[in-house]
Queue: 4 jobs
Job 1
Amino acid sequence: MEDMIFYDRLQFAFTITFHYIFPQLTMGLSLLIVFFKWKFLRTKIEKYNDAAKFFMKIFAINFTMGVVTGIPMEFQFGTNWAKFSELTGGIIGQTLAMEGLFSFFLESSFLVLFIFGEKLMGQKLHFLTGFLVFLGSWASGYLILATNAWMQHPVGYEILENGKYVLQNFSALFSNPWLLPAFLHNQIASVVTSSFVVASIGAFYVLRDKSVEHGKLFLKTGVVFGLISSLLLAFPTGDWNAKNVAKYQPATFAAMEGIFETEEAGAEIVLIGQPNMVEKKLDNKIAVPNILSFLTYQDWNKQIPGMDQFTEEELPDNIPALYYAYHIMVGLGTIFIGIMGLAVFFLWRKKLYSIKPLLWAIMFLVPFPYIANITGWYVAELGRQPYLVYGLLKTSEGVSPTVSSGNTLFTLLGFVGLYMLLGLLFLVLVGKIIHQGPKPLKH
Amino acid sequence: MELFWFIIIAVFLAIFFVLDGYDFGTGIIHLFFAKEEKDKEVIAKAAGLFWDSNEVWLVAGGGMLFMAFPTFYASVFSGFYLPLIIVLWLIIFRAIGLEFRSQFNYQMWKAIWDKAFGVSSLLLALFFGIALGNVVRGVNLGGVENGVSAYEGHYFFLPLWDSSFSPLSEHPGVIDWFTIIIGIIAVVTLAIHGATWIILKTNSSINSKLKAVIFNLNIALLVLTIFSLVIWQIVNPNSLNNFIEKPYLIIFPIIYFTGLIGLFFVKKIKKEAYNFLFSTLVILGGITAALASLFPVILPSTNSINESLTIYNTAASEYGLAVASIWGVLGIILIIIYFIVQKRFLGGKIDKMDYGH
């Protein structure tokens, strides 16, 4: 049984990690595309329109990848987590089905129109289709976060005698205190990713001395959006989420912050250190006293329960992974603010385009917002363990009762192989679009 | 409420099979009949332009199935674990084929992705037919062995096949001689449907040849249909009872045969849309007739110990279904609006359209 859960978890983790490479770009990028198209309508300067159309091409390939890797996510609820689906489908099915009905149709219908319809529709309608694509992709994010928020902090339900979770209050799914902070944090994080992508492609064009005008536009837009979104990521949204974890999942909070022992007054904030699960302490720790209490409760001396206050059952089952995911996310977020702040400073001093080392750095930083986004999700998902529905339903109780681990390993290996191929082709394709540049020759 | 959601989901899945069905069919025709590069290009485009918006119907239908009938969703998805995951892989392969073929202008590159598109379309059609065959045949719910259930009564697990390949064996697999016949029917039906779509949407040079292909495939379809009705009686002797008890359900098989007969006039009919309409009727009629023959059962049990799954014993709570019907109707109205807007701009033949890459 133990083995079986392992492969099921690994398969879900692998497929969702790979899947989330794509939506995190499309959600943020759709906002930037709407911005470019809006600037074009206002200024009538052609390069803004070029930018909107260029990034919609990158959007389209990411959207396709998101669709084909997203269907396995929906299916896996039933194939691998049948018991969970049976028990909670009446609740989380609501938000998942709404996602299909409200966001996918919107997104896919108007994406096709955006790509093919510019000449047929005129500029104003073309802007509108772009806006509707943005609306669809953010609605999708909202409904997925609503689903996840219910798993993190279940509300509006009743448990029947046979163990089934029945919906009692539909609107509670959307007034869930977990939802809004998580949604905003997630969406802004996707704006960070797409800002880095836009800035990175801009840096590439400026450095290689081709499509320089467009490159400068991408750089400027990317770093400004990048700085604003990186700042919003830390405060207020990041802060707000951390407070929610401290309030609703205190054991998770202790584990992700790496607090093994409860201190009398005021908890320290850990910057670096490796969890030593045998001796229950952090090795090579660098920490600043009392800061965590202040950040969480605005009180330097407020006591924060450490992991010693919780039983093994209550604590997440992989504390080091949770701790690292959290610290990688926070550390990268801090670096993003620094780099983007520097870039905006030089943009203001009108020197950005000639500082080569900074442009190289911006170009090569592009994988890191992806890593930060994905580790952020690991914090949420590892932090919820050992539960599927926090405090109520254990992960081990949600797995399919009839699927053997041999079959799960078989499909996991298949997914790994197929996604390798998919990832390779994706990179080739995006590389081709970037190589062609924002004004490709007509063919 | 259960009935309302059953109908909505059935409609969504039927629309999926009509819309993505022509993509599968286009792939099959592409695999066997497209020889010249120009035809290959335009035929791939006839599917490539639309497949992702068509697939949305599957995603939405699946999501609503999860919401409205969670027990059914859990049982069927875990029970048909292997074929479903294989279908996912094929869907991904098909998408790769369509999206990547035109990216580079090398003969070998295009040949590889054409085959990926064609073969995965063919196998998808086959697997979806086999799936329908499994649903009408039924499964060993609860995994009963010597009169004892191995799991809860609404769970099961099917291997891909059992060495006997017989639907009458004690543990039939996903693939047996009955389900494979249904699978072949699906392949033939969707090949016809793909051909009528290609004729409707393109000016490819094989259009006139495809009319002869449709005619011949239609003869095969008629023979296979009659044959399958006979063997269905062997697999499940009660399969036609619903039509005797509720004679109005006969409308669904009538739809099927109307389409089938209409397709015999493919060479005479000048209006291309009618041919597509007839192949659409075959698909709609086929799926609805199969569902009607089972209703209200949605997955029959092959043993006498565990009850068949019905829309009533697998549904979510009354409150949940009622709330969902409000947003469901709203969502459907929106979808109709999008559809009208899209067709207004993107109707007509696609040969001249810029694919945007």
Job 2
Amino acid sequence: MNPFKIVLVGQPNAGKSTLFNVLSDIKAATANFAGTSVKIIQSTIQLQGQVFQLLDLPGTYSLNAIDEAEKITQRYLLEEKIDLIINVVDSTLLARSLELTAELLELELPLVVALNMHDEAEKRGLKIDPEKLEKALGVPVAATAALFGKGVLQLMERCLQKLTGPKSLQPVLPYTAHVETLVQKLAQALPQPGEGKNGSRRFFAIKAMENPVMVPENMRQALATVVASASREITDFHQRDCFESIAYERHHQAMKLSEEISSFSPKGNVLFRDRLDRFLLHPLFGRLAMLAYFLVFFSVIFFAGNLLNGALGLILQKIPPLLLPLRNVSFILWLTMDGLYQGLAGSLGIVLPYFLPLIFLNSLFEDTGYLSRIAFLLDGLLHRIGLHGKSAAAFILGFGCTAPALYATRILENKRDRLLSALLLPFIPCSARNAVIFALTAALAGPAWALLIYLYVLLVIAATGKALSFFLPKPSGLIMEIPDLKPPSWSGALAKTGRKLKEFTSQVIPWLLLGSVAMAWLGLLRIGPLIDSFLSPLLKGLLDLPAKLGTTLVFGFFRKELIIVMAGQALGASSLALLPLSLSQIVVFAVFVTLYFPCFATFVVMGKEFGWKTAGAAAMLSVLVASISAYFFKLLFIFF
Amino acid sequence: MNYLSLNQVPCGKSYKIIEISAGLEARKKLLTLGIHVGDTINKISQSRWSPVLIRNLTTRSSKIAIGQGLSRKIMVGDESL
């Protein structure tokens, strides 16, 4: 028996991903920033002997998609085979959420409504009657509080009933008489949508007037003149653009409905989180709090990283003497084992210590909604470099890993804003490069140098953004939802960190081990020196660095962590602290590594999302900026 | 009371949205976030380096941040209108 395919659809922050997490064992990454789940996540679950395939679609405010993430949901709903839609409604934002519900009803696919955060709405004085909503909509409604796992089983039971029960005709919400007549007339004139396509004739009749690009070509052509006259009639009658008239109609449907099924009695008490929010969004105190947040964020990573680094280093130190006897047995075997050890020491002793605190802190704060506060506070600053606040989320995620940060630009509505953000993102030091900076400076230079490098990176991003803006059209204005604050979840953050740690050990460490062994063999095969001599004009000539670091930079393109794993091997040092480099060389090297194109994965994601030309241009831009910056630092050391 | 743009009126008070004369894309986005002509909104804050922060009282929405440029194109009037 084929599993039932159920998709979760809801507006950003309706708690869709939380519900999905509760429903499945695979926990998807949720984040309380309007639109952070930008990919479709799926899992298979079993309930009462029935298998369900569950999909979490990116949050969307309406089916008239504006940004890329919304377009993914729109396309999926129109083109894929779907057995049932769970519409996740944020009860605290009932009226607005019901507008999407009204639109989903028009699709005429089986629908179940989850009134999520039902408890939260009540706390705020909004009492909603699920039964009344069920009666008014004619589809099953279940009240849930996904965060606490409440009502979730009942929801699935209603879904099962809907899926296995008799097929009943789902009603739609009628428009005002004038528009309704036109919609019905158009719907009758439309041909059936093609095989394998979702959406009823009524749905496409409405979209033909509201958002014609959504209507399949054959339907559009058949009716061009009829639609045009209907649209004109509506525009004349309402004195508004056609899409606005329909949107207002839907708004009134939703308002009327929400008034019928809910009662609001404002509660006098100001919630603590509202007071906290006033502070966090304050122009002065909010910015101070943000600075403190960043300072604490990086200090914790730096110091916790150093602590872990020292502790793990003590254990790892004990291994090399154990390997030594192998040297007498077989040189190649010893070389390979030693390469493996270097890789292991690098990944566990240097990379992991800085990676772990970073992903934990990111996971902890992602869900709270603080990212959108940062976006709000940084909007003015980002405007100066040709962007706006919404890019902030992608940049902050970039401190973790560049590839997902590139996906996060999907929430930007404007192509130009997306492109500029994508070109600047590779400059943000990801966790691998944070490890490079922290490990190198901690071992050889001191935290002040790390801070200086970060400040310089921000400067580079600002200057590059400003320079690129000259070649691009003007940025668009900001319109962004600031979702309510949520308390951080320690258990959620721990679980997410555990998942990322697992990903790191299974997907990253093998490559680091392999690279390290390759490095050991390259020394034997004398290919390394070939690469080194090719890059020597840049490294030795321009930047005054040992030419032997050339190979590490090439490997670094595959994984930046490899650079610190391999640097010691390349220069014949048993630990980072023993690297035969001067202070100036360390800083110049760290600056170059931080700024040159992150990695192969980033290149592929960028190519897929923005085209290979853009990816190539971004790579070249970053190598250029890295070379200039590293040279600049070299000069700085010469003159001061 | 004359109509003023959203960026000109004092914070902490409620207003009715009279007209939104922004571009097509911006109007669409405002609609999806639940901002309509005729809605009563509360202007929470505005400062030189930040967007204007509002909350829609008619739909009891979450907070919405609106860029300075766009806030000039949203005309508001007295709440009682």
Job 3
Amino acid sequence: MAVTNDKAAIEARGVSKLFGSGEHQVTALDNVSVSIRENEFFTLLGPSGCGKTTLLRLIAGFDFPNSGEILLHGSDIAPLPPYKRPVNTVFQSYALFPHMTVAENIGFGLEMLGKPKSEVEARVSAMLKLVHMESMRERRTSQISGGQQQRVALARALAPQPKVLLLDEPLSALDYKLRKEMQIELKRLQGETGITFIFVTHDQEEALAMSDRIAVMSGGRILQIGAPWEIYDRPAERFVADFIGETNFLIGDVKSVEGETATVALSSGAEIRSTFPAGTKPEGRVTVVIRPEHAQTVEPGAGLLSGTVANVVYLGTDTHIHATLDDGAHFVVRQQNAKSGRCSQEAGDRIGIAVSAGVAQILKD
Amino acid sequence: MAAVAQTAEARARKDVANRWLLSAPALIIILFAAIGPLFIVLVYSFLAPGPYGDVKWEFSWDGWTSVLFQRDIFDETLSFADAHLSIFWRSVKLSLATTVITLIVGFPTAYFIATRRERDRDIWLFLITIPFWTNLLIRTFAVLEIIRNEGIVNKLLIGIGLTDTPIQMLFTDFAIMIGMVYVYLPLMVLPLYASMEKLDFRLVEAGYDLYATRFNVLRRIIFPLVKPGVIAGSILVFIPSLGAYVTPSILGGGKNLMIGNLIELQFGQGRNWPLGAALSIALMVVVMITLLVYVRNAGAGGEQHHG
């Protein structure tokens, strides 16, 4: 993994972007502030329409913010046209030039920067080597596969050695296996080039697998920024918990707060120690989230919760046991299939549910 | 298996037969209205002129020799027909100029329309085609009205003090060119628009992203990708310009002839149908050669890019 430091490569300060006017006005970005560090693999994650692509386009210079500043290494680049920004983009559709060869595509940026021909040649060769495409040099972009086009798009964007590389859902058009391959490839490239990557995706798995840090976005706002494990294990808001992975929501009342954890009494009377988002002070009625894989089924009567099995879903690697708790709430337990054979539980069985220590998290709202 | 193959073959044959039947009306029209008369013109070009127009049915090369040469009345020696050649040259020159100007004017127009919102594009296209609703003759007289010595342009120029006496624009090559640019502009804009509409504007963004300035994006990305439209538009403008008749005869005032007028003259006052026929065929050959050279060069230019 690349070594990150705390210096900001890109910093957005109070950026807002509106589209349309009058009644049809849409707020695509609502006062967004974020600081992306040098050499970081930073992901903007969210559903379509959350503003992640808009933010990327503002950084690239294809659109201009209505308010706020965008800083690159400390200087405001918001008024610069895209061709004056040391930032390159890998487009979702790749946007390879169909009238040029693979080599011409990769060399285009350097050529436009006025680099001498010999340097362009050398750099194109190096890029082709980097993405393992040496043999495709003189091919037309229509004569190579989707995965290869993806590699050319990457090489083209990396060739001018940008300060920051923007990637707009670059893997979404690839099939599952190729996507997995390219995830590793992208990580490798980021490590080898030491360039800051800003990656946009709606695929949470992709985000968790690749990122140094993730910003979860919804409705034009950034809801939470953190390392993948923080986003997954310590979601601050219901949207974040719900959007990433599967989650059980339980209602309870805060009994006491001790340092960084709080004791919450669930409706069944059981008490659970839960973490809570930094900077908040939980009190009264709260929602506690517990990931399905953090719970285990145990003998009836044992464990924190008790209920009845409603449904058993076999998924190969795991089995999901959907249970109805005694207070009527729905709870899912994910069990890894460590042994082969049928699951021992069946619908209608009484079960107890144990929860691992330190896995419960209280939401902000 | 064999039976299935046979029915498939029979069906395919029937398909072909149907297609011929469907295209029959068009083919008949082409045969009778284009190829037939063209053949007659070709035959006439090898006959002798009749005294009151028409042709005498005896073989003669005179029609063809007078395209390029004129026979001295006294000693029958041949010399180059300067008048014909200068008319040919003027036609080619004016048509080329018209094509280039419509391209320069039409390109941004088409780009403008292609970058509008989808439903607004139809309105703009509709506006572009409005001149087609009016008769060519009337449109040409409208141009005459604007550029004549007492016309609005000259009044304006005198009004703001740029000139004391009206500038003679009417009955010049310039007037013919203005008229042709006006009349043929839509023929350039429409095919250009058709190409640009298909242009993926994300490629333009990719160009900007890769440090290409506006001019370089135009030169290296937009232009090569809309080249089919440029070629189609140029052909659609150049061909009718070269054979233009109404525009040069009104705006050129009978002094500045183009090939179309020269041909008309031979069939009318000139009473030399074989020469008119030979000139017509010559015009067609010039058009065909120009197109061949143009398309081949344009194709070769593309080849370089395509590698």
Job 4
Amino acid sequence: MSALTDFEAARHLSEKRARIRRESITGWSFIAVPMLLLLFLNIGIFIYAIYISSQDWGIMGSKGGVGFENYRTAFADPIFLKAVRNSILYAAIVVPLQTCLGLFLALLVNSKVRGAKFFRATFYFPSIASSAAITTLFIFLMAPDGLFNRFLTLIGVDVPGLFNSGAWLSDSRTALYSIIGLNAWTTSGTMMLFYLANLQTINESYVEAASIDGASKRQVFWYITMPLLKPAHFFVISTGVIGAVQLYDQAILAGGADGSPDYSLMTMVLYIYNLCFRQLQFGYAAAIGVLLFVIIFGLTLMQRKIFGSRAWSAED
Amino acid sequence: MLSRKSLIVGVVALALVTPFATPANAAQTVVTLATWGSSPAETEALNDAIATFEVRNPTIDVQQVVHNDHGAQMIAKFASKTPPDVFYLDAGIAQDWAAQGILEDLTKYVNASNFSLTAFNKSYLAPFKTGSALYGLPKDANPLVLEGNKTLMARAGIKTLPTTIAQFDSAAKLLLAKKITPMCVDADINRLGAYFYSFGGSIATGTKSGLNSAGTKAALTWALTNYKTGAFKTPAQLSAGWAGEAFGKELCAFTMEGAWLDPYLRDAFPKVAASMIKGQLPAAKSAGSLAFTAAYAIGKDSTNKDAAWAFIQYMTGARGMGVWTSYGVAIPSRSDVAIPVGYEVNGQAAKAKTTVTTPSFVGWNKVIDAFNNETKKQVQDKNMNVAKAVASIISKTSAAFPK
């Protein structure tokens, strides 16, 4: 009897292992194609870019290896350093702005006011509209005789006496900040959606319990809602930083491929474009791309350390 | 909703017919021509010129591809070894592309066809030559000239276009007194550089900076002083995309552009086109101007090189160039092609010994970016110290020249 039982147990174990193996093979088969694409199109291309960055690369390919020369050139290149400064300054201002605006809009839309769905669609619209179209309209709005300056004139501001006669996007002192204002508005809709999704998962019982205990609305917001939005904070800020450091389309439309005036609109991605298509220095451009990756990766790791490795919830 | 039987009959019919559906004139060679986007007048002129070529060459069908970003799109095609058969090659980028080994040397085609180059203005051929190799034939030329709005000039009591720097300065004072912006010109080396030669300086000598000369410093000082006093304004300061638009909207009395301005004004601002007069740029020590040119070129990996050469030979020959330039979109780069009527001033400027083509060497774009960035930074400040600004512009631009 015991021998039969041992045999049965061994057979069951063997069948279980075979089933697990079959399920694993099925699972891996399903993800094999997208994984291969990821490997080739993302990781493989990145490794190839690292290789290109070690070469003097022309339109038709490598003209010879240069080792780390492209990286040494980058750290001594005032235009690259200015591009890094512009990209990080832009991210440092735009991310908090779009995060706060996105959270504010999400709280507004989540507050069950009349027409919440309409407002949600309206606030999200700039995020789905064409970036080039919005930037072109913005250029008209911010021109010396544009709507913005006409409004300033109406409230008594001496526009011709302002920076560059009110040509906000053509003055090195105001061009980047003008783009910051534009993008904080256009991206806030997307951030609003992320916050809204998280807000709607917060258990009402926490808020009710706090209210019963005598907490004010301000206290509920700061001590209940904000901590429970931690996953959204991390996601919004991480994606915001990644997107902000890669600013390109508004910069090239407003300032041209040379990032003028005074390289005030030269960002890292725009400089990569400039090096590739105006100066034909593909190896150097690849090196800057690798440095951009390092910067973004470093910033993302830093944020992960600040926010912690797992989402905080009320149960913890 | 189609019945299943009808659907099957349709598919079978399509399958039977498709192998026999060939384009008309299957024996024709198709030559792809890649160009940058242009005005309706230029499009019409090019289409006409192509049509006259095709009549004379019935076995060649030219198909035009218009690029939104010609440079970037051409580079992508070169890299994938699928360049068009013929393409526009701007003088400013010609040496960069030649150095990349992507252009076909046309010397053997020129020699085999006995195509004479003597009628070409040598300065328009120069940007496309490297040593003994020739990478493009200039399809036209476009020097900068001074354009004036007679209506605005009359308001300030100015009867004729200024021909000297001193006359310009006097005219500017009169216009400013009437609150009319005298000149709209971008802070761009491809505009202000025209005055460097007029003042006895230069932009470059070969691949070396010519900016440290007394003439260039004088020209820059004059230009920056004009920006400071308001005699010059950039298009951005006048809410315009380019100086031609500002001129068309009557936001300025003068501008300095090439023949491309005429068809643009006729289309968009016909009233201003009718009141426009043209003359040479104001002269300092001598009359001087900058001219722009572009060539037809063939790629090293282009497919139909013989047919492409036949097209280039025609379009840069007297007959083809005559058709192309007859619309007034550009000036002939050959001396044996008549200047179009109404473009005598442009034609004189194109032929003048004091007109130079924009520099063309590997790394020229970096110099352009350096000059434009620094100059635009300086002119935005109403309180700029002109001498310091000139020194800064010269220093930063000279640093961008190839070592």
